[in-house]
Design brief:
Blueprint lengths: L1 H12 L11 H6 L18 E7 L7 H7 L9 E6 L4 E7 L1 H8 L4 E6 L8 E6 L1 H6 L14 E5 L8 E7 L13 E6 L10 H10 L10 E6 L9 H18 L7 E6 L8 H12 L3 E5 L23 E6 L17 E4 L3 E4 L6 E5 L2 H18 L1 H4 L3 H11 L1 E2 L12 E2 L17 H7 L9 E2 L9
Parallel strand pairs: 7-9, 7-10, 8-9, 10-11, 11-12, 12-13, 15-18
Antiparallel strand pairs: 1-3, 1-4, 2-3, 5-6, 14-15, 16-17
Length: 460
């Protein structure tokens, strides 16, 4: 009945046009009543649109068989793809309205659906620092790096939820507005993990703070191993990492837990086997580790923990670039550097008040952005990346934007950090001073920001 109905419709539509050729015995046998190779389903580019024809495998064995039935071939103009698997078969082709009507009436056809454009679900936040636009926009960013009219683009709105980012540093001002209650004090070699230096708070804000951070829903845990002068001992550092490893083990069975990252924006003057051992054991336990390359403009392979990057382990060592995609003059380089990230004139939270922000430069500032992308990817696919440093590092490097960095790489791979999204934001000049926009902007955390300083000193 379906075939005869289709024939009646088609016959009526062609009554005033060229007569349909008489059906041959072969067409009747094949069920092609009312069709010929020069009629209804032949390619008519002026009167066709791209459709997906989903087939019922219980009625027809494969896509090629249906093409034969309607007098088409796989290599015909207007036939774009044939798909067959154990569950279904499909054809992507051009079809006229008359052909679509005919196909709709065939028992072998489950549905005919017009091809539609698929777009990623990209969410964008304006008023972001330049680094967030750089990691989420193919065209990058341009203009004044201290301006705040850049755009952060991302597909996964969980933004690192369920990931614990351990900021192994000078402590963190956990009450700062950008953390929204997600930051807590963990370990400290002193009585409190409060930040008397500012470095750790800035790092935490870049990794996971609202407005300024990459993974804006991740948990932040302060691990204070450096003093208020920004320095410390390797023994305190090892003690802090021991606490992280134990806390990570406790967290494993808790609901909503995805995984752990140690973000470490510091380094030694040389190498220390004990510190190296603590880091590699953390990686073996499933903890992701992101470390700074260092600010000596030298080979990163000469110091701990930077030398653990490259092919040496699953640690990720991060160098710095500026807004022009140039290697920062201070950044360490070489084969131990895995990836580069924005590290000059980076705006983030500061330790002297809950609404105070500050500019800093250094591989210390590039590293937490890498940590943030790691958290973003972990939350996006917890089963694959949550506690698998090797898989996550491979994914991070495969997603990086390639061959756009200029300057002295010193043997480093030409890879620039990316969250895998192209926001398609046009590069443009940015005007206005940080002081002027800080006075007027009210961020989504309902705070007026106070800029501590527009000077951007280099920190490790």
């Amino acid at each position: 009945m379906r075939t005869f109905l289709s024939f009646a419709v088609l016959a009526a539509s062609y009554a005033t046009a060229t007569a349909v050729p008489e059906d041959t015995p072969e067409q009747i046998e094949a069920g092609l009543i009312g069709l010929s190779k020069n009629s209804t389903c032949q390619h008519d580019p002026a009167n066709s649109k791209e459709v997906i024809v989903m087939l019922d495998k219980d009625e027809i064995p494969d896509a090629k068989s249906l093409l034969e039935k309607i007098g088409r071939k796989a290599d015909d103009d207007g036939v774009f793809n044939l798909m067959d698997n154990s569950q279904w078969s499909a054809i992507v082709m051009h079809a006229s309205p008359e052909c679509i009507s005919y196909l709709d009436d065939l028992a072998e056809v489950k549905m005919v659906d017009e091809a539609a454009q698929v777009k990623s679900f990209v969410t964008q936040k304006t008023g972001a620092p330049w680094g967030l636009q750089r990691i989420s926009n193919e065209a990058g960013a341009s203009g004044n790096p201290q301006g705040q009219t850049f755009t952060y683009s991302f597909e996964d709105t969980s933004l690192g939820a369920g990931v614990d980012v351990y900021v192994v540093d000078t402590g963190v001002r956990v009450s700062h507005a950008v953390f929204g209650g997600r930051a807590v004090e963990g370990f400290s070699f002193t009585q409190t993990a409060a930040d008397g230096d500012g470095h750790g708070t800035h790092v935490a804000g870049s990794a996971a703070g609202a407005k300024f951070g990459v993974a804006q829903n991740a948990n932040i845990i302060a691990v204070k191993v450096l003093g208020d002068d920004g320095s410390g001992s390797s023994s305190n550092t090892i003690a802090g990492m021991n606490w992280v490893l134990n806390n990570h083990e406790k967290r494993k069975g808790q609901p909503g837990f995805v995984g752990s990252i140690m973000s470490m924006s510091w380094g030694l003057q040389g190498k220390a086997a004990a510190v190296d051992g603590a880091i590699t054991s953390a990686v073996d336990a499933g903890i992701h580790v992101s470390v700074a390359a260092g600010n000596d403009g030298a080979d990163a392979c000469g110091t701990t923990p930077a030398h653990l990057g490259g092919a040496n382990s699953d640690v990720v060592t991060v160098g710095s670039v500026n807004i022009q995609n140039e290697v920062s003059s201070f950044s360490n380089i070489g084969k131990c550097v895995d990836i580069f990230a924005p590290g000059e004139q980076i705006l983030s939270a500061w330790n002297t008040g809950d609404n105070v922000i500050n500019f800093l430069s250094g591989t210390s500032m590039a590293t937490p952005q890498n940590s943030g992308v790691m958290a973003y990817l972990m939350a996006q696919d917890p089963a694959k990346f949550g506690q698998n440093p090797k898989a996550l590092k491979a994914q991070l490097l495969s997603m990086a934007r390639q061959d756009i960095i200029t300057g002295n790489l010193g043997g480093s791979a030409n890879l620039l950090l990316s969250n895998g999204v192209d926001g398609k934001v046009k590069k443009r000049s940015v005007i206005g001073s940080p002081v002027s926009w800080a006075r007027s902007i009210v961020a989504d955390v309902d705070k007026r920001w106070v800029v501590n300083s527009t000077w951007s000193p280099v920190r490790f």
